[in-house]
Specification:
Blueprint (H helix, E strand, L loop, with lengths): L8 H10 L1 H20 L6 H10 L7 H7 L4 H14 L2 E5 L7 E5 L1 H24 L5 H12 L7
Antiparallel strand pairs: 1-2
Protein name: DNA-binding MarR family transcriptional regulator
GO molecular function: DNA binding; DNA-binding transcription factor activity
Pfam family, one: MarR
């Protein structure tokens, strides 16, 4: 019987302290909880708020650019739209230019919810930015955008 390989506990601690993925996941979960709590009185989750804001455009977008912006696959986006449709906040309509395509439109009720929720989002967002001590918010955003950018060809 062979001896299994063992990873030293020091390596576990090193991964815990340095893993960018772990730290990004922890931060994302903490932020999500804070925004979920702040947006709950408006009947929204942070994901729904971001999705509805992504639909706030001069012309209703198709699914692909919204999915890309939110880093979701089309199936996940379609599932996320269902409760918003049931609430009457979003309509999924046939694209007048391409009957196979769908356009995503905020309803008047959906816009009213966003208008009501936006001041609370701004308040909490400002509070979170003000609490950052190790890095300024613009540098953090740039770093996160760098990480989330599609890989360059050949990578």
């Amino acid at each position: 019987m062979s001896n299994p390989q063992v990873i030293p506990f020091a390596t576990t601690l090193h991964v815990k302290d340095t893993c960018l993925c772990l730290h990004a996941q922890r931060a994302a979960r903490a932020l999500a909880r804070r925004f979920d709590a702040a947006l709950k009185p408006f009947g929204l989750t942070n994901q729904q708020f971001s999705l509805m804001m992504a639909l706030n455009r001069p012309e209703p977008p198709t699914i692909a650019p919204v999915a890309s912006l939110l880093a979701m696959d089309r199936t996940t986006l379609t599932a996320a739209l269902k409760p918003l449709e049931r609430q009457g906040w979003v309509n999924v309509e046939t694209d007048a230019r391409d009957k196979r395509g769908r356009r995503l439109r905020l309803t008047d009720a959906g816009m009213a919810v966003l208008v009501a929720a936006l001041p609370e989002w701004k308040r909490l967002h400002g509070e979170i930015e003000a609490d950052l001590t190790a890095i300024d918010a613009d540098s953090l955003r740039r770093g996160l955008l760098d990480i989330s950018a599609p890989p360059k060809s050949g990578e």
